[in-house]
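Hi R.,

Here's the chain you asked about this morning:
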Amino acid sequence: MVKPKVMIRGIYTTALTKLLSDRGFLITEPSVTTVKRFGFRRIYGRDVLVVDRPDRQGVKVEGVAEHVESVVQVLVDTLPDVIVRESFPVRPIMVGVGRVNLHPGYLSFDIEFPYGSKRYLDMVRGEVTATIEGHHQLKIIDSDRVDAYESMLNLNPGMLEDISAAAKKELIYDRLTSGGRVSIQHVKPDGSVINLGDAEIQCFEGGTLTLKRMILGCGSTYDGLNVPKSSGDYALTFAEEGSCILRHAYYSCEGVLKGEFYNINTPIEFYPDKIRYVDLEVDVVRRPNGDLHVIDVERLDEAVSLGYVSSRLSNEAKTIASRLYIQLSKC
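And the predicted structure, written out as tokens:
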């Protein structure tokens, strides 16, 4: 069987090169750095191209259909919370039932690497070269500073924890100060990004951000709570780094609690100017009378049927929602 040739470029190159080459893929047109790290001989031609997305929150995988699918399957099988979206190129034509491609035999996928996938790729990269904890996330923020910290790590390999903590403090934590503002990037499985609004940092303690934001849309209702929005309403959002649960508590202008909404998502990532996660659709809500409900399970099932979310990740989300429901019912 001919081994697929894969060309990889971007901040995930070393980790994906290790992941795919270990599984028999040929890495074609490797960069000078990749040749140095892996000792590959230079080969040309490619079946699959893997490049960073513009926001570097994942990659684009495109090329010969059967080989693209085999690359994507490795990512789905290996990464804990990867999100997969088939891309529709410019001027597509139909080449089969339910499939749209640029030309027969061509496929393109948009692959999102949430928190857990980035951490897994950090670990894989660390098997090849000096890698600080949170490497891929921090590369999105400031690539040069990450390189500087990893040069330090290369000289002091026993200081991984201290150097990683210093990097994260400089690039993220020192910028999350009380009174500052961050956005909440609520990413849907299909790739659409909903900005929940500009939020003021109330405090940052113990890995948890407490955020306050004013609610717009007076006269409409809160999804899942069936409670009307009123002028002056505000929300307190409690975001714990790495948590799969994001809690929103909604209040009237008088400070009366109108309901709580617990979003189930991929683990929350902190950035200097935002928090980010992929929404896994299912939620737990507590209405003003105290009634608890698990809602929108069917939306998660739809995301699985469309191929965005793996069955494994879906089952994990449902388990988290069920456990949360039981926990809250005892409060």
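The chain has two domains: 5-118, 181-329.

Let me know if you need anything else.
M.
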